[in-house]
Amino acid sequence: MPEGIGSDPRRKTTPGRWRVLGHPEGILIYEVRCIVESHGWTEPAVERFHNLILGRSGAYRRRLNGRTAFSDATSVLITRPGDEMSVSHPLGCGDSYTCVQVDPRVLAGRPDGARWLETAGWEGTSDASLDLAHRMLIAEFRRGLDHFEMAERLHRFLDGVLSRTGARDEPGTDLARAVSRRPATQAAHRRLADRAREVLTAGAYSLSLDAVAREVGASPHHLSRVFHRVTGSSLTAYRNRLRVRAVLDTLAESDERPLRAVAAEHGFADQAHLTRVVRDHVGHPPAHLRRLLAHTPRT
Protein backbone atom coordinates (compact mmCIF):
# COMPACT_ATOMS: atom_id res chain seq x y z
CA MET A 1 0.00 0.00 0.00
CA PRO A 2 1.62 3.32 -1.03
CA GLU A 3 2.84 5.50 1.77
CA GLY A 4 0.23 7.99 2.98
CA ILE A 5 -2.90 6.11 1.96
CA GLY A 6 -4.88 5.54 5.12
CA SER A 7 -5.56 9.04 6.45
CA ASP A 8 -9.25 9.80 6.61
CA PRO A 9 -10.56 13.15 5.31
CA ARG A 10 -12.73 13.59 8.42
CA ARG A 11 -10.62 11.76 11.02
CA LYS A 12 -8.99 14.97 12.28
CA THR A 13 -12.28 16.78 12.65
CA THR A 14 -14.95 14.25 13.59
CA PRO A 15 -14.77 11.69 16.41
CA GLY A 16 -16.27 8.30 15.69
CA ARG A 17 -15.91 4.55 15.48
CA TRP A 18 -13.69 3.48 12.60
CA ARG A 19 -13.23 0.13 10.93
CA VAL A 20 -10.91 -0.65 8.03
CA LEU A 21 -12.62 -3.08 5.68
CA GLY A 22 -9.73 -3.67 3.31
CA HIS A 23 -6.59 -2.16 1.85
CA PRO A 24 -5.47 -3.81 -1.39
CA GLU A 25 -2.53 -2.05 -3.02
CA GLY A 26 -3.24 1.62 -3.61
CA ILE A 27 -6.80 1.57 -2.23
CA LEU A 28 -8.22 1.79 1.26
CA ILE A 29 -11.88 1.22 2.15
CA TYR A 30 -13.25 1.82 5.63
CA GLU A 31 -16.51 2.61 7.39
CA VAL A 32 -17.23 5.22 10.05
CA ARG A 33 -20.02 5.87 12.51
CA CYS A 34 -19.65 9.41 13.86
CA ILE A 35 -20.13 10.36 17.49
CA VAL A 36 -21.57 13.84 18.02
CA GLU A 37 -19.79 15.76 20.77
CA SER A 38 -20.74 19.23 19.56
CA HIS A 39 -23.22 20.66 17.07
CA GLY A 40 -20.78 23.39 15.99
CA TRP A 41 -18.32 23.41 13.12
CA THR A 42 -15.11 21.44 13.40
CA GLU A 43 -11.75 22.94 12.55
CA PRO A 44 -11.09 22.90 8.79
CA ALA A 45 -8.83 20.10 7.60
CA VAL A 46 -6.98 19.96 4.28
CA GLU A 47 -7.46 16.67 2.50
CA ARG A 48 -4.42 14.81 1.28
CA PHE A 49 -5.95 12.10 -0.89
CA HIS A 50 -8.60 11.31 -3.47
CA ASN A 51 -11.70 10.19 -1.61
CA LEU A 52 -15.08 8.80 -2.52
CA ILE A 53 -17.43 9.26 0.48
CA LEU A 54 -20.77 7.43 0.37
CA GLY A 55 -23.46 8.19 2.94
CA ARG A 56 -25.24 5.34 4.70
CA SER A 57 -27.28 6.90 7.52
CA GLY A 58 -27.79 10.13 9.44
CA ALA A 59 -26.87 13.59 8.20
CA TYR A 60 -24.37 16.41 8.58
CA ARG A 61 -23.48 19.78 7.13
CA ARG A 62 -20.22 20.14 5.31
CA ARG A 63 -18.21 23.21 4.35
CA LEU A 64 -16.01 22.21 1.44
CA ASN A 65 -13.74 24.84 -0.11
CA GLY A 66 -15.91 27.58 1.39
CA ARG A 67 -19.26 26.24 0.16
CA THR A 68 -21.78 24.92 2.68
CA ALA A 69 -24.09 22.03 1.81
CA PHE A 70 -26.17 19.33 3.47
CA SER A 71 -25.22 15.64 3.27
CA ASP A 72 -27.38 12.65 4.15
CA ALA A 73 -27.73 8.93 3.51
CA THR A 74 -28.21 9.52 -0.22
CA SER A 75 -25.14 11.71 -0.67
CA VAL A 76 -21.99 10.89 -2.61
CA LEU A 77 -18.98 13.19 -2.25
CA ILE A 78 -15.80 13.18 -4.32
CA THR A 79 -12.79 15.10 -3.01
CA ARG A 80 -9.15 15.40 -3.98
CA PRO A 81 -5.89 16.63 -2.40
CA GLY A 82 -5.99 20.28 -1.39
CA ASP A 83 -9.71 20.42 -0.69
CA GLU A 84 -10.51 21.92 2.71
CA MET A 85 -13.45 20.59 4.68
CA SER A 86 -15.14 21.03 8.04
CA VAL A 87 -18.39 19.47 9.26
CA SER A 88 -21.18 20.01 11.78
CA HIS A 89 -24.16 17.97 13.01
CA PRO A 90 -27.04 20.44 13.46
CA LEU A 91 -29.67 17.71 13.86
CA GLY A 92 -27.98 16.30 16.94
CA CYS A 93 -27.53 12.88 15.36
CA GLY A 94 -24.37 11.33 13.99
CA ASP A 95 -23.95 9.81 10.58
CA SER A 96 -22.35 6.74 9.08
CA TYR A 97 -20.53 6.53 5.79
CA THR A 98 -18.07 4.55 3.73
CA CYS A 99 -14.89 6.07 2.35
CA VAL A 100 -12.87 4.68 -0.55
CA GLN A 101 -9.45 6.31 -0.66
CA VAL A 102 -7.45 5.84 -3.85
CA ASP A 103 -3.84 6.59 -4.70
CA PRO A 104 -3.58 8.93 -7.75
CA ARG A 105 -1.34 6.40 -9.50
CA VAL A 106 -4.13 3.85 -9.29
CA LEU A 107 -6.63 6.36 -10.68
CA ALA A 108 -4.27 7.36 -13.48
CA GLY A 109 -4.14 3.74 -14.63
CA ARG A 110 -7.91 3.50 -15.03
CA PRO A 111 -9.64 4.27 -18.37
CA ASP A 112 -11.79 6.87 -16.53
CA GLY A 113 -8.84 8.13 -14.49
CA ALA A 114 -8.87 11.64 -15.95
CA ARG A 115 -12.46 12.19 -14.82
CA TRP A 116 -11.64 11.01 -11.29
CA LEU A 117 -8.50 13.15 -11.07
CA GLU A 118 -10.26 16.27 -12.36
CA THR A 119 -13.43 15.94 -10.28
CA ALA A 120 -13.15 17.92 -7.06
CA GLY A 121 -15.59 19.01 -4.40
CA TRP A 122 -18.44 17.29 -6.22
CA GLU A 123 -21.54 16.07 -4.43
CA GLY A 124 -24.35 14.08 -5.99
CA THR A 125 -26.75 11.37 -4.94
CA SER A 126 -26.67 7.61 -5.34
CA ASP A 127 -29.50 5.88 -7.11
CA ALA A 128 -31.05 2.73 -5.66
CA SER A 129 -28.85 0.35 -7.63
CA LEU A 130 -25.64 2.10 -6.56
CA ASP A 131 -26.76 2.21 -2.92
CA LEU A 132 -27.50 -1.53 -2.93
CA ALA A 133 -24.18 -2.27 -4.68
CA HIS A 134 -22.44 -0.17 -2.01
CA ARG A 135 -24.13 -2.03 0.86
CA MET A 136 -23.51 -5.45 -0.67
CA LEU A 137 -19.86 -4.52 -1.15
CA ILE A 138 -19.60 -3.68 2.56
CA ALA A 139 -21.28 -6.97 3.50
CA GLU A 140 -18.80 -8.92 1.35
CA PHE A 141 -15.81 -7.12 2.87
CA ARG A 142 -17.11 -7.77 6.39
CA ARG A 143 -17.44 -11.46 5.61
CA GLY A 144 -13.83 -11.62 4.47
CA LEU A 145 -12.02 -11.35 1.10
CA ASP A 146 -8.42 -11.80 0.04
CA HIS A 147 -6.55 -8.80 -1.38
CA PHE A 148 -6.90 -9.92 -4.97
CA GLU A 149 -10.68 -10.13 -4.74
CA MET A 150 -10.81 -6.91 -2.72
CA ALA A 151 -9.00 -4.99 -5.47
CA GLU A 152 -11.10 -6.49 -8.25
CA ARG A 153 -14.40 -5.75 -6.48
CA LEU A 154 -13.38 -2.18 -5.66
CA HIS A 155 -12.38 -1.44 -9.26
CA ARG A 156 -15.63 -2.90 -10.52
CA PHE A 157 -17.53 -0.78 -8.00
CA LEU A 158 -15.69 2.38 -9.07
CA ASP A 159 -16.51 1.63 -12.73
CA GLY A 160 -20.11 2.75 -12.36
CA VAL A 161 -19.90 5.44 -9.70
CA LEU A 162 -19.48 8.52 -11.88
CA SER A 163 -22.24 7.61 -14.32
CA ARG A 164 -24.67 6.30 -11.69
CA THR A 165 -24.39 9.41 -9.51
CA GLY A 166 -24.91 11.76 -12.44
CA ALA A 167 -21.38 13.21 -12.32
CA ARG A 168 -20.28 14.64 -15.64
CA ASP A 169 -16.95 15.60 -17.13
CA GLU A 170 -17.27 19.13 -15.73
CA PRO A 171 -16.17 19.23 -12.08
CA GLY A 172 -18.75 20.54 -9.67
CA THR A 173 -21.81 19.89 -11.85
CA ASP A 174 -25.06 19.91 -9.91
CA LEU A 175 -28.69 20.34 -10.82
CA ALA A 176 -29.13 23.63 -9.02
CA ARG A 177 -26.59 25.31 -11.33
CA ALA A 178 -28.74 24.39 -14.30
CA VAL A 179 -31.63 26.50 -13.05
CA SER A 180 -31.55 29.75 -15.03
CA ARG A 181 -32.15 32.12 -12.12
CA ARG A 182 -30.27 34.84 -10.30
CA PRO A 183 -27.54 33.56 -7.96
CA ALA A 184 -29.34 34.93 -4.90
CA THR A 185 -32.53 33.08 -5.86
CA GLN A 186 -30.61 29.87 -6.51
CA ALA A 187 -28.95 30.14 -3.09
CA ALA A 188 -32.30 30.74 -1.37
CA HIS A 189 -33.85 27.76 -3.14
CA ARG A 190 -30.91 25.55 -2.22
CA ARG A 191 -31.27 26.58 1.44
CA LEU A 192 -34.99 25.78 1.36
CA ALA A 193 -34.37 22.36 -0.18
CA ASP A 194 -31.62 21.62 2.33
CA ARG A 195 -33.90 22.61 5.20
CA ALA A 196 -36.57 20.21 3.92
CA ARG A 197 -33.93 17.48 3.66
CA GLU A 198 -32.96 18.16 7.28
CA VAL A 199 -36.56 17.81 8.45
CA LEU A 200 -37.04 14.53 6.60
CA THR A 201 -33.61 13.15 7.51
CA ALA A 202 -34.39 13.68 11.19
CA GLY A 203 -36.77 10.74 10.81
CA ALA A 204 -39.99 12.72 10.46
CA TYR A 205 -41.52 10.05 8.25
CA SER A 206 -44.98 10.52 9.76
CA LEU A 207 -45.20 14.23 8.93
CA SER A 208 -47.56 15.33 6.17
CA LEU A 209 -46.41 17.55 3.32
CA ASP A 210 -48.22 20.47 4.97
CA ALA A 211 -46.36 19.83 8.22
CA VAL A 212 -42.97 19.69 6.48
CA ALA A 213 -43.82 22.92 4.64
CA ARG A 214 -44.71 24.62 7.94
CA GLU A 215 -41.41 23.46 9.44
CA VAL A 216 -39.44 25.16 6.65
CA GLY A 217 -41.67 28.24 6.37
CA ALA A 218 -43.03 27.70 2.85
CA SER A 219 -46.25 26.68 1.18
CA PRO A 220 -46.53 23.01 0.17
CA HIS A 221 -46.73 23.94 -3.52
CA HIS A 222 -43.70 26.25 -3.41
CA LEU A 223 -41.66 23.74 -1.41
CA SER A 224 -42.54 20.88 -3.75
CA ARG A 225 -41.69 22.91 -6.85
CA VAL A 226 -38.40 24.28 -5.50
CA PHE A 227 -37.29 20.93 -4.08
CA HIS A 228 -37.76 19.28 -7.46
CA ARG A 229 -35.89 22.05 -9.25
CA VAL A 230 -32.91 21.89 -6.89
CA THR A 231 -32.62 18.12 -6.39
CA GLY A 232 -34.29 16.64 -9.46
CA SER A 233 -36.47 14.55 -7.16
CA SER A 234 -39.95 14.89 -5.70
CA LEU A 235 -40.28 15.12 -1.92
CA THR A 236 -42.11 11.78 -1.88
CA ALA A 237 -39.36 10.03 -3.85
CA TYR A 238 -36.68 11.53 -1.62
CA ARG A 239 -38.54 10.51 1.55
CA ASN A 240 -38.87 6.95 0.27
CA ARG A 241 -35.18 6.82 -0.63
CA LEU A 242 -34.31 7.82 2.93
CA ARG A 243 -36.69 5.25 4.39
CA VAL A 244 -35.39 2.44 2.20
CA ARG A 245 -31.80 3.24 3.19
CA ALA A 246 -32.79 3.23 6.86
CA VAL A 247 -34.48 -0.15 6.37
CA LEU A 248 -31.36 -1.55 4.68
CA ASP A 249 -29.30 -0.42 7.66
CA THR A 250 -31.69 -2.19 10.02
CA LEU A 251 -31.71 -5.39 7.94
CA ALA A 252 -27.92 -5.46 7.78
CA GLU A 253 -27.53 -5.07 11.54
CA SER A 254 -30.27 -7.36 12.83
CA ASP A 255 -31.55 -10.86 12.02
CA GLU A 256 -34.16 -10.91 14.74
CA ARG A 257 -36.59 -8.03 14.35
CA PRO A 258 -39.88 -8.97 12.63
CA LEU A 259 -40.47 -7.14 9.37
CA ARG A 260 -43.77 -5.76 10.67
CA ALA A 261 -41.80 -4.00 13.44
CA VAL A 262 -39.32 -2.63 10.89
CA ALA A 263 -42.24 -1.34 8.81
CA ALA A 264 -43.82 0.43 11.79
CA GLU A 265 -40.53 2.01 12.89
CA HIS A 266 -39.96 3.60 9.48
CA GLY A 267 -43.48 4.86 8.92
CA PHE A 268 -44.81 2.28 6.46
CA ALA A 269 -48.49 1.39 6.58
CA ASP A 270 -47.73 -2.30 7.15
CA GLN A 271 -45.32 -5.07 6.17
CA ALA A 272 -46.83 -5.36 2.68
CA HIS A 273 -46.28 -1.63 2.10
CA LEU A 274 -42.68 -1.97 3.28
CA THR A 275 -42.10 -4.92 0.94
CA ARG A 276 -43.62 -3.13 -2.04
CA VAL A 277 -41.60 0.08 -1.61
CA VAL A 278 -38.32 -1.70 -0.95
CA ARG A 279 -38.80 -4.02 -3.93
CA ASP A 280 -39.65 -1.07 -6.17
CA HIS A 281 -36.45 0.71 -5.13
CA VAL A 282 -33.85 -2.06 -5.09
CA GLY A 283 -35.50 -4.96 -6.88
CA HIS A 284 -35.57 -7.39 -3.93
CA PRO A 285 -37.96 -7.95 -1.01
CA PRO A 286 -36.73 -7.22 2.55
CA ALA A 287 -36.42 -10.88 3.54
CA HIS A 288 -34.04 -11.55 0.63
CA LEU A 289 -32.05 -8.39 1.35
CA ARG A 290 -31.63 -9.45 4.97
CA ARG A 291 -29.82 -12.58 3.73
CA LEU A 292 -27.75 -10.63 1.20
CA LEU A 293 -26.57 -8.05 3.73
CA ALA A 294 -25.98 -10.39 6.69
CA HIS A 295 -22.61 -9.88 8.38
CA THR A 296 -22.05 -13.55 9.26
CA PRO A 297 -18.37 -14.31 8.57
CA ARG A 298 -17.51 -16.96 6.02
CA THR A 299 -16.58 -20.35 7.41
Automatic annotation (TrEMBL):
Gene3D superfamilies in alphabetical order: Homeodomain-like
The UniProt record lists the keyword Transcription regulation: yes
Pfam families according to UniProt: HTH_18
Database matches in SMART domains: HTH_ARAC
Residues annotated as domain HTH araC/xylS-type: 190-292
Keyword entries, A-Z: DNA-binding, Transcription, Transcription regulation
InterPro entries tied to this protein: AraC_XylS_family_regulators, Homeodomain-like_sf, HTH_AraC, HTH_AraC-typ_CS
Database matches in PROSITE patterns: HTH_ARAC_FAMILY_1, HTH_ARAC_FAMILY_2
Protein name: AraC family transcriptional regulator
Source organism phylogeny: Bacteria, Bacillati, Actinomycetota, Actinomycetes, Micromonosporales
